[in-house]
Automatic annotation (TrEMBL):
Name recorded for this polypeptide: Cytochrome P450
Top-level taxon: Eukaryota
Listed Gene3D superfamilies: Cytochrome P450
Residues holding heme: C437
Family the UniProt entry places it in: Belongs to the cytochrome P450 family.
Lineage: Eukaryota, Fungi, Dikarya, Basidiomycota, Agaricomycotina
PANTHER family the record matches: P450, PUTATIVE (EUROFUNG)-RELATED (PTHR46300:SF7), P450, PUTATIVE (EUROFUNG)-RELATED-RELATED (PTHR46300)
Pathway field: Secondary metabolite biosynthesis
GO molecular function: heme binding; iron ion binding; monooxygenase activity; oxidoreductase activity, acting on paired donors, with incorporation or reduction of molecular oxygen
Alphabetical keyword list: Heme, Iron, Membrane, Metal-binding, Monooxygenase, Oxidoreductase, Transmembrane, Transmembrane helix
Species in which this protein is naturally found: Mycena pura
Requisite cofactors: heme
PROSITE patterns tied to this protein: CYTOCHROME_P450
Length: 501
């Protein structure tokens, strides 16, 4: 009996002692640890002069070659840690609560208004509310399944636009309208206009502003928040931000108010917003606000990324015609030109599905993702990542790692079929931690439908000199503009697109 009592008393003490010892060991390791290696800086200003102003991901990749999976710089005392390897990013992923917040970015945040949307919202209670809404709407394959008929219908409308305007700048406009149309219908029940649609225009303006506002180092106010107190007549960035803030507000308010007006007349289609507002009388002002900003986060964040991937698809087909031929052969063998592909064909079209996977790898939509922030001191690979550090994940480098993806500049769907790489690129390109892209399932459905139906009905041909695959600047990066032309594969394809069959 005495021994049992002693064990009962000592067991919790042993647990406490182990926690104390672990904490003591961590503090000792932290004292002995240093920031990850990186280019030597100068007194006071640190590495301000080392920071690239364009194609930052390429410079960071060079640092990765020199210093490994983790490197760091300091800008006027602010630590910035660059993650260049997927293995290192996976370590951060296991500590989701520590690395899932956002740094303070005054230009895009307080000034342009994006700090209230999911993309820049700090990790906390409101963030979890937004994510909960996202999860219920598009967070799993099961809930996304309800939107497949909608995606198929909007993709068929896309084919008709492609048939009417098959080349030049029209390709980019078509894919933007397609992705905008899908998001608008799901979020607000809005069906886009065939000519220039005001809501799609709102998305594009606000997203262009966000991309410009979040370029690392583009605005000194992000390094010196005290500049927020400079009078506007001495701060040109404030005048720019005022214009951007108006665009952000329009993106948030205009479609929301449109749904409210439809609900008042009893004509509102079922949508994310209309369903949540059905019980508005029971909702607090804060809950209504969260619905409004969750909707704008879906609306603003989902369209541009998918449009970037689809534009890159047309470029890939121009640069790698053999891939186009193989995909068409598979489509013909399964469908035989008797109908348009539908999403349920996904399982019987493995090569076409692999084209989508390779597309996500080959063209990095967000080469550096959106910066994360460390909310407490951590040790990764023996290096100290101090609380408050800005974390930049060089997704471009991970997706172009030749050890994982041989000949990474080559668009090769076969790599995902015969001997799949150790890491599925989807595990990288959709981010990490508790900020992994909540729209991943919807994005993949949309990409597959557009890729499959386009290849089933059109030939994508080169026009002029062979284009080059280069990313535009910005947080969301598109391929630089290129020329191509699409032509219907046959009269039957035209009939299928036109709905005559």
């Amino acid at each position: 009996m005495p021994s049992t009592t002693a064990a009962t008393v000592l067991a919790p003490l042993a647990g406490v002692l182990s926690l104390v010892l672990v904490g003591s060991l961590f503090r000792k390791q932290r004292r002995n640890a240093s920031l990850p290696p990186g280019p030597p800086g100068l007194p006071v200003i640190g590495n301000v002069l080392d920071m690239p102003s364009v194609t930052e991901w390429l410079t960071f990749s060079e640092w990765g070659s020199k210093w490994g999976g983790l490197s760091s710089v300091t800008l006027l005392g602010q630590p910035i840690v660059i993650v260049n390897s997927a293995a290192t990013m996976e370590q951060l992923d296991t500590r989701g609560s520590v690395f899932s917040s956002r740094p303070r970015l005054p230009m895009a945040g307080e000034l342009a208004g994006y700090d209230q949307t999911l993309v820049l919202l700090p990790y906390g209670p409101r963030f979890r509310v937004y994510r909960k809404h996202f999860a219920k709407l598009i967070g799993t394959q099961g809930v996304v399944r309800q939107f497949i008929p909608l995606v198929e219908a909007e993709t068929h409308r896309f084919l008709k636009r492609l048939l009417l305007k098959p080349g030049g700048d029209s390709i980019s406009a078509h894919v933007r309208k397609l992705t905008g149309a899908i998001i608008l219908r799901i979020t607000y029940g809005i069906e886009v206009q065939e000519e220039e649609d005001p809501f799609v225009t709102l998305i594009e303006k606000a997203n262009d502003n966000f991309n410009a506002a979040t370029v690392p180092g583009a605005f000194l106010v992000d390094v010196f928040p005290a500049m927020l107190y400079i009078p506007e007549f001495l701060a040109p960035f404030k005048r720019t931000a005022k214009v951007w803030a108006q665009a952000t507000k329009a993106m948030v308010e205009a479609p929301y108010l449109y749904v409210r007006s439809q609900m008042a007349t009893g004509t509102a289609p079922v949508s994310f917003v209309s369903k949540l507002l059905e019980s508005e009388k029971k909702l607090s002002e804060e809950e209504v606000r969260d619905i409004r900003y969750t909707a704008s986060s879906l609306y603003g964040g989902g369209a541009d990324t998918t449009a970037s991937s689809l534009y890159a698809f047309f470029l890939a087909m121009v640069l790698f015609p053999d891939v186009q031929r193989k995909a068409r052969a598979e489509l013909d063998s399964v469908i035989g030109g008797t109908r348009l592909p539908v999403y349920s064909d996904h399982e019987t079209l493995p090569y076409v599905a692999a084209v989508v996977t390779e597309l996500l790898r080959w063209h990095s939509v967000a080469p550096l993702g959106v910066p994360h922030a460390a909310t407490e001191d951590s040790l990764i690979d023996g290096y100290l990542i101090p609380k408050g550090s800005i974390i930049i994940a060089n997704l471009w480098n991970m997706l172009n790692d030749p050890e994982t993806y041989p000949s990474p500049s080559t668009f090769d769907p076969e790599r995902h079929l015969t001997n799949p790489p150790q890491r599925d690129p989807r595990q990288i390109c959709f981010g990490f931690g508790r900020r992994v892209c909540p729209g991943q399932e919807l994005a993949e459905v949309s990409l597959f439908m557009c890729v499959a139906t386009t290849l089933a009905t059109f030939d994508i041909e080169r026009v002029g000199p062979l284009p080059v695959h280069e990313n535009t600047q910005g947080t969301i990066s598109h391929p630089k503009p290129f020329d191509c032309m699409v032509k219907p594969r046959s009269e039957r394809a035209v009939a299928l697109i036109s709905g005559e069959v």
